[in-house]
Write a structure and sequence with these properties.
Elements: H1 2-10, E1 20-23, H2 27-37, E2 45-49, H3 52-60, E3 65-69, E4 72-76, E5 80-85, E6 88-92, H4 114-123, E7 125-126, E8 133-136, H5 143-148, E9 159-163, H6 169-176, E10 186-192, E11 195-200, E12 203-208, E13 212-216, H7 235-245, E14 252-254, H8 257-281, H9 292-311, H10 321-324, H11 327-340, H12 347-353, H13 364-373, H14 379-401, H15 408-413
Parallel strand pairs: 1-2, 1-8, 2-5, 3-12, 8-9, 9-10, 13-14
Antiparallel strand pairs: 3-4, 5-6, 6-7, 10-13, 11-12
Helix pairs in contact: 1-7, 3-4, 8-9, 8-11, 8-12, 8-14, 9-11, 9-13, 13-14
This protein binds ketopantoate.
GO cellular component, one term: mitochondrion
GO molecular function: 2-dehydropantoate 2-reductase activity; NADP binding
EC number: 1.1.1.169
């Protein structure tokens, strides 16, 4: 809490509560919440669960987040909860108002009493407390819906940190959720390279130590060429940045907006080739290698991607852009990454197999949109994007048409 006091002292603004809200509890959200809770003096944390089913999972996991490293579970508790039910957020604090912890709703053989879930929700208060710091770790394609559910709790003093794959969500949020520039929150972006794999809800395994690169965005969200002046960031932005960079498991560093943008674009270029190709060829990342035809496809896609990135107005005047984003360097990086993650099923292929919408519109779609603004036609990236959407629709329809068979009577006869 020392950070909150320091930052409040530096400004004449109202004192910050220091509370951090987290929306999206997949791998990244769970890892960040757990890391914050592992601090010597953890900030107050509220996990935002977007439906009562997720709250039931939370109770079944005994209100704990766990990170598994080298086979050992590290368990953290003490999180306050908000649950979204019928468009209203309900507050379920970790401690009851009388200071007691909640009773266990899971019996000795691990069974959840569902009536307790509903009772908890019935007894809880509506929560429309303003949010100072919000960490958003939902997928790019869910960001607008997720932010709409909390937009009434965000103010121009709030800071929203987006931690996700893909690009273009800030532009979409400005258009669809915060159209009035005077009522927008401050934005921060981040890029996580830790290896994380889901084991079950609220339990994630940390498979490789990476870094977290963070940067606030200038007002409005998009950078302008040569605009790298020392901004006086808002108190909630400074607080969130300082808290995260002082949270050891995240290995977080603060960068300038232009430096972060370049890391994001490198990651985007990798995702624009590996992810859609693994979907279309239904293969592991490593299977894209040592294949002349696929190498040609990668190279052609990267030529378009490189042309768009090198022409981006926000990067003009940045030294070394043309060599950092040359098709050759990007291809070497893609080959290296596909090799390093050879046995992985890409996140996009996992989404397609689960029948979920993919991030393609925030990957190749982003390149196509930025290309259009600059008069560069990206026919190949457009084609790849349409193929991925088409393939994922075919699979969804196929699954919807599958006839569910009730085989329980056969099991009974055995
Ligand atoms: O980031 C990835 C993803 O799957 O989204 C890669 C690097 C392609 C690893 O699978």
């Amino acid at each position: 809490m020392q950070d909150v006091e320091e930052i409040s002292r530096e400004t004449d603004k109202r004192r910050l509560s220091g509370r951090i809200h987290i929306l999206g509890l997949g791998n990244v959200g769970t890892f960040v919440a757990h890391s914050l809770a592992a601090r010597k003096s953890p900030p107050p944390i509220t996990l935002l669960l977007h439906n009562p089913g997720l709250y039931a999972d939370w109770l079944a996991r005994k209100r704990c987040l766990s990170i598994n490293t080298n086979g050992l579970d590290d368990i953290k508790t003490g999180f306050d909860i908000n649950v979204l039910n019928d468009r209203t957020w309900y507050s379920l604090p970790y401690w009851k108002p009388n200071g007691e912890a909640h009773d266990d709703v899971v019996d000795a053989d691990g069974k959840l009493h569902i009536e307790d879930v509903h009772e908890d929700l019935r007894q809880s208060q509506e929560d429309d407390e303003k949010i100072e710091c919000l960490i958003v770790a939902v997928k790019a394609q869910q960001t607008v819906t997720a932010l709409k559910s909390v937009s009434h709790r965000l103010t121009p003093e709030s800071t929203v940190l987006l931690l996700q794959n893909g690009m273009g969500t800030v532009e979409e949020l400005n258009e669809k959720v915060f159209p009035d520039p005077h009522r927008r929150p401050h934005y921060m972006m981040g890029l996580i390279s830790h290896g994380l794999a889901r084991q079950e809800p609220f339990r994630v395994s940390h498979t490789g130590v990476g870094t977290t690169i963070l940067s606030p965005l200038p007002a409005g969200g998009r950078l302008k060429a040569g605009e790298e002046k020392d901004e006086d960031w808002a108190p909630s932005t400074k607080y969130l940045l300082r808290t995260l960079t002082l949270t050891p498991p995240l290995v977080a560093v603060a960068e300038t907006p232009t430096a972060l943008l370049q890391y994001q674009l490198e990651k985007l270029a990798m995702n624009c080739v590996i992810n859609p190709l693994t979907v279309l060829l239904d293969c592991e990342n490593g299977e894209l290698l040592y294949n002349y035809n696929i190498t040609r496809v990668m190279r052609l896609l990267l030529i378009e991607i490189s042309t768009v990135i090198c022409a981006l107005p926000e990067l003009q005047g940045v030294p070394g852009i043309n060599s950092r984003f040359s098709p050759e360097r990007l291809r070497n990086m893609a080959v290296h990454l596909a090799n390093k993650t050879a046995k992985n099923t890409s996140s996009m292929l996992q989404d397609v197999r689960r029948g979920q919408k993919t991030e393609i519109e925030y990957m190749n779609g982003y390149i196509v949109r930025r290309g259009e603004e600059l008069g560069i036609r990206c026919a190949l990236n457009y084609l790849i994007m349409q193929m991925v959407i088409g393939k994922s629709d075919i699979l969804t329809q196929r699954n919807a048409g599958a006839i569910p068979l009730d085989l329980s009577h056969l099991e009974e006869e055995d």
